[in-house]
Write a structure and sequence with these properties.
It is a single chain. Strands 7, 8, 11, 12, 13, 14 and 15 form a 7-stranded mixed sheet that branches. The chain has a 5-stranded mixed beta barrel with strand order 1-2-3-5-4. The protein is built from 5 helices and 15 strands. By secondary structure, it is α+β, with helices and mostly antiparallel strands.
Length: about 260
């Protein structure tokens, strides 16, 4: 007579052959899962050396400037952007101190040579010490700026300088749009031959407030043609609305310059 199949009884131990199968399958599953996780981790791109020192307040001295974006200009003539907590600017808090020598207290964000201050919520986080123009402003590269054609990515300055890692790319697009819409500075991440990664502040039609059609291209590779100048030691890229256009995802960020003769 043919043997009958075994009957499963939940309160008894697994048969030896079943137990061996479950153990082997479990070990194989964990091994494959760990290997897959390792492959995914290795394939991720390096987010960069951006740093957000959110655990320690610092105090900086300099002159507050509102144009082209709220910043504190130090003794070396280089500015640090001033932003607020979360995804918001602090223009209304900073504007009364425009042109005054101040002490500003907050948290530091930095990526390579670009610096930012996240202003503390305390009422005395910015205090005027004396009036005056402060250190001389650095001059622009040329009277009208330098004509450049850049292929790169529009990013929000706060996240890219350390608030998020990574602070760019398709995965960060929605966050970047919210941050820039809230008044945080739009930057352009691209290599400029001979100058490295400048991360210039983007002004479209003279404003750092981006229209909806430009916001739609944030976090995507874009081609930008405009004038690059230096204001308070910071590069500023001035363009018109029609000077920004999307490009293919395979294009590598770079920039070319065409110096006027």
């Amino acid at each position: 007579m043919p043997s009958k199949p075994p009957i499963y009884v939940g309160y008894l131990q697994l048969p030896t052959r079943h137990r061996r199968f479950v153990v082997a399958a479990g070990v194989a599953f964990v091994t494959v899962l760990a290997a897959a996780g390792g492959v995914v981790a290795i394939s991720q791109r390096e987010p960069g050396e951006a740093v957000w020192d959110a655990g320690q307040e610092h105090t900086w001295s300099g002159v507050v400037r509102m144009d082209p974006y709220p910043m504190l200009v130090g003794e070396d003539g280089t500015g640090r952007f001033i932003v607020g907590m979360g995804k918001f600017a602090v223009r209304e808090r900073v504007e009364p101190f425009d042109g005054l020598a101040c002490e500003v207290r907050g948290f530091s964000l930095a990526r390579e040579h670009r610096r930012m201050i996240e202003l503390s919520m305390d009422e005395d986080a910015i205090v005027a010490r004396s009036e005056g123009a402060g250190p001389p402003d650095r001059q622009t590269l040329s009277a009208a700026g330098e004509h450049v054609v850049i292929v790169g990515e529009i990013v929000d300055g706060k996240c890219y300088l350390g608030a998020m890692k990574p602070g760019d790319g398709k995965a960060h697009k929605a966050c970047a749009v919210l941050c820039i819409s809230g008044g945080l500075p739009p930057l352009v991440a691209a290599d400029l031959p001979g100058s490295g990664r400048l991360y210039p502040l983007l002004r479209v039609g003279g404003s750092v407030t981006l229209a909806d059609d430009v916001l739609g291209m944030v976090g995507e590779p874009v081609r930008i043609e405009g004038r690059l100048s230096v204001v308070h030691g910071l590069p500023v890229l001035d363009v018109q609305p029609g000077d920004i256009s999307p490009v293919g995802r395979t294009t590598q960020p770079h920039a070319a310059t065409d110096r006027p003769g």
